[in-house]
Amino acid sequence: MSASNASVVLSVGGIGKTYTQPVLAGIDLTLHRGEVLALTGENGAGKSTLSKIIAGLEVPTLGHMHFRGQAYAPGSRTQAERLGIRMVMQELNLLPTLTVAENLFLDNLPSHFGWVSRKQLRKAAIEAMAQVGLEAIDPDTLVADLGVGHQQMVEIARNLIGDCHVLILDEPTAMLTAREVDMLFAQIERLQARGVAIVYISHRLEELARVAQRIAVLRDGRLVCVEPIANYSSEQLVNLMVGRELGDALDMGIRTLGETALKVSGLGRSDKVREVSFEVRQGEIFGISGLIGAGRTELLRLIYGADVPDSGTVALGSPAQVVSIRSPVEAVRHGIALITEDRKGEGLLLTQSISANIGLGNMDRVSRAGILNAPDESALAQRQIDAMGIRSSGPRQIVSQLSGGNQQKVVIGRWLERDCSVLLFDEPTRGIDIGAKFDIYRLLGNLTRQGKALVVVSSDLRELMLICDRIGVLSAGRLIDTFERDSWSQEQLLAAAFAGYQKRDALLAEATPKDAS
Questions:
Q1: Which of 74, 340, 449, 491 could lock 56 by a disulfide, CB 3.0 to 4.6 Å apart?
Q2: Quick one: pLDDT at residue 310?
Q3: What is d(CA 197, CA 415) in angstroms, rounded to the nearest whole number?
Q4: DSSP character at residue 148
Q5: Is residue 511's pLDDT more than 70?
Q6: What keywords were assigned to this record (predicted)?
């Protein structure tokens, strides 16, 4: 056996998977000890399906696998984990009301005569947490009290307990700050040094170039590239992923701004959102930037009536008329839509069809006297499938079987049928591949040409700078500054994002001596 073959931990040959239609075909791939293999491709290309087959969550329709030289055909995730193949999925699998230690060993709590040994549990948790650089975290801390980044690291630590030979990370940095990303990458280097093979799934090409040695690109269920990542530029990888040039897809088109459509004045709630005021005109995209925890999502929820403000008003139209919005139902009646950042938890019924999900917000269009008209529901869904290019087998396909990008289009399609005049988008392209992002950008451009007023929250500054007419920056709950197109820079936006926290910290420092006395 050659040295190269000896280093192979996992190999898959001819792997195929068919649901209502083929989603994977003829996948041949090897994974070596101590390497990071980047796995990328458009949403719907088959990344998650291939990963779930390796991790025992799905059974392939065709093909075979070998793990450490032996035939490998796990019947469940538990079987795969016992062999040392683990997967950290995008949706964290932690129980927020339990401690870090309890989450780490939930399936194997150390006990004597039925009583959990807290001393042994704490000791084991400290050892597990040290593997991922969490020595500073008390294992008795409730998971709910941790930030998302630390929760992500706890999830990784949980998957490293016992022997781990293959670790699959699915979009691990989607909700992490830059500092937390650095911490994650430092741990990946430590895992590599231990010989753990890592499959790193991401759409962030700059991250892949930083962390991976090889890259595998999937397109339409087939591998189109398995090469050293250093051989490709970001532009070349994008072209491989989507099978076409995307250059002119960045053009958002000419925008004609109309009258004021939305006016927010002095809106506030506790210390999350503080006296925020701004206006958005017809045909305008107003971006909202800021650090995680700055109050961006909370602001949208106040406008939409999901939370009740302590102060301030929301006005619509020109001249602006103050409206009372105390619930999402009232917001929708006034023509305001919210496309939430958590499309799976708050935006979709995952076990239902496309037609059911789109019809959900348009029951008056698909029912008579309280009785659902299935043909009308299907016709309405098909209209959005065609208009938005939703990749599916038809209106009856279950939404959970769609890729992230196509799921997001289903959510947006529901609101387009209602013809809302103000649309609030919270992280509309999170977890979506580059090709699907351009589809969403084109959709936003089309909406502005229809005279819609759009408010877009995004953690991606480059995205906001690409699509927005103006960008407001939230910091510590306050709108620090608003920048016009062509008069902003990434440095200015970042400086504004930190400014509110610096001012708050300075005020706290001044107040401390007085409090102490």
A1: 74
A2: 95
A3: 43
A4: H
A5: no
A6: ATP-binding, Cell membrane, Membrane, Nucleotide-binding, Repeat, Sugar transport, Translocase, Transport
Task: Answer for the pair 257, 282: CB distance below 8 angstroms, yes or no.
Answer: yes
CA-closest candidate to residue 201, choices 80, 122, 330, 88: 88
Task: State if pTM tops 0.70.
Answer: no
How many Cα atoms are found within 13 Å in the side-chain-facing hemisphere of 362? 28
**Residue found under tokens 């019924």:** 349
Rg (C-alpha) for the chain, rounded Å, is 25
How many whole angstroms separate alpha carbon 488 and alpha carbon 471?
Answer: 9
Cα–Cα distance measured from residue 149 to residue 134, given in angstroms and rounded to the nearest whole number? 11
pLDDT for 44 equals: 67
Q: What is the pLDDT of residue 505?
A: 57
Order of strands, edge to edge, in the sheet holding 22-32?
22-32, 8-18, 62-67, 70-71
pLDDT at 249 over 70: no
> What is the average pLDDT value for the chain, to the nearest integer?
85
Distance of CA 114 to the CA centre of its chain: 40
Half-sphere exposure of 183 (CA within 13 A, CB side): 19
Highest mean pLDDT out of 28-32, 370-374, 446-450: 28-32
**According to the model, what pLDDT value does residue 439 have?**
82
Q: Write down all domains in the chain, each with its CATH number in brackets.
A: 3-249 (3.40.50.300), 258-335+420-517 (3.40.50.300), 346-419 (no CATH)
Selection from 15, 44, 41 nearest residue 27 by Cα: 15
Number of residues assigned to the chain: 517
Nearest to 158 by CA among 206, 94, 96: 94
Q: Please identify which residue in the block is written with the tokens 């759409």.
A: 203
Tokens 């992280």, residue located? 427
C-beta of residue 348 within 8 angstroms of C-beta of residue 399 = yes
- Helix orientation angle between 374-388 and 404-416, rounded to the nearest 10 degrees: 120
